[in-house]
Design brief:
- This protein is α/β, with parallel strands linked by helices.
- Among the domains are: 138 residues, 3-Layer(aba) Sandwich (Rossmann fold); 154 residues, NAD(P)-binding Rossmann-like Domain (Rossmann fold, 3-Layer(aba) Sandwich), CATH 3.40.50.720.
- Helices cover 45% and strands 17% of the residues.
- The protein has a 7-stranded mixed sheet. Strands 1, 2, 3, 4, 5 and 6 form a 6-stranded mixed sheet that branches.
- It binds nicotinamide-adenine-dinucleotide.
- The site of nicotinamide-adenine-dinucleotide has 24 residues, from helix 7 and strand 8.
Length: 424
């Protein structure tokens, strides 16, 4: 019997602390009273589950899983599930809180949650992943629910895992409950546009920021870190709007081509190469660290947390950073970027297109109807543009960064709702 221990947080930039630094700054600007501060700062519910799974070799391996509901003040909690060896409770707590703020920024009636399992999905067979996903769902069957807590994909999970989750939850209820999870395959009640939704939102917020900064997309260059769901879709959609994508990357390395990466080739290569870019010849091989410091107009970190730190923030040459990933900038790097006049569209705004279409998926499931793609895209674009404008005006009014402005918008909304609802 084997057990995978949670990895200690080795880096200096604990994502929960990074989230709290911004939360504290915004709370000060809002003059948040102590009581509301205490309510909003801690997660509503933290569940730790132990998941014994029979591996293909016949041995049982015990995995540790988490589900954190940060808040259900605005509505049922919403947030993805991450499969990764680096999953850590503090990381899940930070990601759950970011979901609360994100839903508030885009004005969606959801609270925030996040889940994770410490595992290496790339080294597991489909059968092992299915058993793990069913065990996780079964352990959390009382936590999940269309009116309680609605999971979705995150790093290491996708439509396939969401289908297993829906099936396992539905079996426990004795009926099909497709609104319990979003990011499902289309045939199970998934929404058109969900796969590209996060990338689409990143594209819309990038263009909105470029317009304010008077950067012409047709003359702009861009580098994207991460070539998964968010990174690849963002790159394709931005190229479509005229930007030249000079750099892309995944966990195996980064590729640079000053004439522009052929994205069609990169996607085809990745699909034919077990989902990784390793060996891609459409650009010079550089490191992920180098990619972040390349001479581009727009930098899109779309892989993981804490890649922009006080150590490299001063070397970033991009004028605009748009955070496709959650928490890619450590709080300690914010000041350096702000002083260097690097504009940052923060994660809780930039990548909110995903949860927006997840919300549309849930609405469609609940009314038993399917919306066409043009309606989904139109509504997503409008939600993202409106959210960007609200955050931008707040930043101008208070003379603060877009990140702090997004926290101000979000915390103000959740705090106001809490006051109306009240406590015990
Ligand atoms: P994914 O698993 O589809 O892709 C992740 C990509 O990042 C892969 O290309 C992987 O190789 C790369 N990567 C991993 N570690 C890396 C490293 N150290 N350096 C460079 N690249 C690395 O995941 P995703 O769904 O695209 O999520 C990416 C980020 O976006 C995460 O922070 C996630 O929380 C966030 N996000 C995702 C969604 C969504 O709808 N999928 C929504 C909002 C936010």
């Amino acid at each position: 019997m084997a057990y995978i221990e949670p990895a200690p947080i080795k880096d200096k930039h604990n994502p929960f602390e990074s989230m709290m630094v911004r939360f504290n700054d915004a709370a000060k600007i809002l003059n948040l009273d102590d009581e509301t501060y205490e309510v909003l700062k801690r997660p509503h519910k933290v569940v730790i589950v132990s998941l014994p799974v029979t591996m293909d070799n016949g041995k049982i391996q015990v995995f540790e899983g988490y589900r954190v509901i940060h808040s259900n003040i605005l509505g049922p909690a919403k947030g993805g599930i991450r499969y990764d060896l680096g999953v850590h409770l503090d990381e899940v707590k930070a990601l759950a809180a970011w979901m609360t703020w994100k839903c508030a920024v885009v004005d969606i009636p959801y609270g925030g949650a996040k889940g994770g399992v410490i595992c290496d999905p790339r080294s597991m067979s489909a059968g092992e992943l299915e058993r793990l996903t069913r065990a996780y769902t079964s352990s959390l069957v009382d936590v999940f629910g269309p009116d309680q807590d609605i999971p979705a994909p995150d790093m290491g999970t996708g439509q396939r895992e969401m289908a297993w989750l829906m099936d396992e939850y539905s079996k426990a209820q004795g009926r099909t409950v497709n609104a319990v999870v979003t990011g499902k395959p289309l045939v199970l009640g998934g929404s058109l546009g969900r796969v590209e939704a996060t990338g689409r939102g990143v594209m819309v917020s990038t263009l909105a920021a470029m317009e304010k900064m008077k950067i012409n997309p047709a003359k702009a260059t861009c580098a994207v870190q991460g070539f998964g769901n968010v990174g690849s879709n963002t790159a394709i959609l931005l190229e479509d709007r005229g930007l030249k994508i000079c750099g892309i990357s995944d966990h195996t390395g980064a590729y640079w081509n000053a004439d522009g990466i052929d994205l069609e080739k990169a996607v085809a290569y990745k699909n034919a190469n077990k989902g990784v870019l390793q060996g891609f010849t459409g650009g010079d091989l550089i490191t992920n660290d180098q990619l972040l410091e390349m001479e581009v107009d727009v930098l899109i970190p779309a892989a993981k947390e804490d890649v922009i730190t006080p150590e490299n923030a001063g070397n970033i040459k991009a004028k605009l950073i748009v955070e496709g990933a959650n928490g890619p900038t450590a709080a300690a790097a914010d000041k350096i970027l702000f002083e260097n006049k690097v504009a940052v569209v923060p994660d809780i705004l930039a990548n909110a297109g995903g949860v927006t279409v997840s919300y549309f998926e849930w609405v469609q499931n609940r009314i038993g109807y399917k919306w066409p793609l043009d309606r989904i895209n139109r509504r997503t674009d409008r939600a993202m543009k409106d959210a960007f404008e609200t955050v931008y005006q707040t930043a101008v009014n208070y003379k603060i960064s877009l990140r702090l402005a997004a926290y101000v918008v979000a915390i103000r909304k959740v705090a106001e709702t809490y006051k109306f609802r009240g406590g015990y």
